[in-house]
Amino acid sequence: MKTFKKTLLKSAALIVILMVTVACKTEASNAVASNVIAKDTLSITILQTADIHGQLDTHPELFWENDQVVFKNRGGLANIKTLFDQERQKNPNRTIIVDGGDLIQGSGYTALSEGKVMPNIIKNMGYDVIIPGNWEVVYGKDIMMNVMQDYGTEVIVQNMYHEANEEPLFPASWVKEIEGVRIGFVGINDPDVPVRQNPIFSEGIGFSGLDADLKTMIDAFKINEEVNVLFLVTHIGIFKQVELASNPIAENVDYILGNDTHERVRELIVGKYAKVTEPGAFGSFVGKLTLHFVDGKLVGDDYELMDVDPEVYKADETLQALIDEEKAPYKDYLETVVGHTSTPIYRYLTVENPMDNMITDAARWKTGADIAISNGFRFGNPIVPEDGNPAAITRANLWNLLPVNEPVKTGRATGKQIKDWLEKEMHNAFSQNPTERFGGWLVRFSGMKVSFSSQNERGHRISSVIVKGEEMKDDDYYTVSACVRPGDPLDNLCRMPNVKDVEVKDYTIHEAVEEYLQKNSPVSPTLEGRAYCEYLGTYSFSTVPGSAYKFE
């Protein structure tokens, strides 16, 4: 009976505290809106990186300015270290540095070392807390665990667990107290990782979703740990992050530090409960959120997206030496030139881009298939000719363009199969329901010309598909090439099921592209209207429905 009474008292106390928390949060939100900052304000800085994807050095970055694509050099982990140090000096003992995942995949150096080039570098950069992203699983569970445990910093994630015993992979949360103000962080990775990535990557790992159990955990964490400001560090993409900010799950959340979709949020996106940001990718940017407190109460915030400009933030010499040391065993192989391009090769566009036009052209050239398809990756640093001279393409570039190197496979599919598959992929990219989006970029292809309307209902977006100069016929068979996805059934090609006469080739996609470049350089890929939607236009960068966000 005593235990029952204690439980009742605890439940009643929890309800009261939650009511007070919501009331205080509303009061704080009003104060934030007024942005009245007192003289005795305590200011705490939160720095955020995301989706670095193994990019160790300064590299060309794409910007959209004055209605055109321009390129500038940005990034470099040693340059970020300088930025971190300068920001910590500006606000000593009041700065927290966060990374939102996808650190150990995306470059040749991380791929060939299976992520092992990263721990010593990350250990010396000064991060406070890190979460795993959807690509952290790429080398398998054991390697992911070993690499992340070697960072020497806090790693948190609430919804990943050992499948065998349902024990968590890492702690769900972390708290940092600064001068009496308690800042709490909860990590959340994408529960759809086993679908988005090759299924074999995440074997042995279970994922839980964004559900009532998560809300219970968040609410209890805020109360039990006496958290003044609560952050969700999420790797689920901008669309789902903005939806979550207005979902009752986030009722007691103040900020969502978003990651995954590489968006460059320059002004906080305000939801019903929380504010959302996402700080770009590849180490080209650092998000800086400054929180202002008076008497322990949040009274204002400032946010900016900082460019990691190597002219402004010179490389930290000690860290650069460590980076060079980690790269050394792989450098000669990766920096070998395999071709040249006379036009800029880049991604970021949601529908078509020169980078994937070149890759799918190479696959179709090598296989002889009617249609070559490629996944809708968003990463890959631009390769930019200078002074009218073709730009070199190295094996390191190939790993940036193609983050996994699997065998090519071919098969036959009917026109109806291909159209149904395209409709499904279009819904993944353009659904107006954020919870139904996967990434936000269409698959890419060579050998087809597709006209569609992104705003139409599911299953009714395609208006025309042209193959070999003729409208695709539902009952005719077409040969298709794609890459093996380990863990998928043999008769699946890039998530297209029930493909006939599947053949796995004895060469990989990297080998196909290298051979194509050797025989056809300098290449000159451009935008050709292979997929076109009048609503989106030619230069379609990501948009976030219901917000004023623009990719710049």
TrEMBL record:
Keywords: Hydrolase, Nucleotide-binding, Signal
Residue spans crossing the bilayer: none
Domain of life: Bacteria
SUPFAM superfamilies: 5'-nucleotidase (syn. UDP-sugar hydrolase), C-terminal domain, Metallo-dependent phosphatases
Secretion signal span: 1-25
GO biological process, one term: nucleotide catabolic process
Residue ranges annotated for the 5'-Nucleotidase C-terminal domain, each copy included: 337-480
GO terms assigned for molecular function: hydrolase activity; nucleotide binding
Classification via Pfam families: 5_nucleotid_C (PF02872), Metallophos (PF00149)
UniProt-recorded name of the protein: Bifunctional metallophosphatase/5'-nucleotidase
Annotated organism of origin: Gelidibacter salicanalis
Taxonomic classification: Bacteria, Pseudomonadati, Bacteroidota, Flavobacteriia, Flavobacteriales
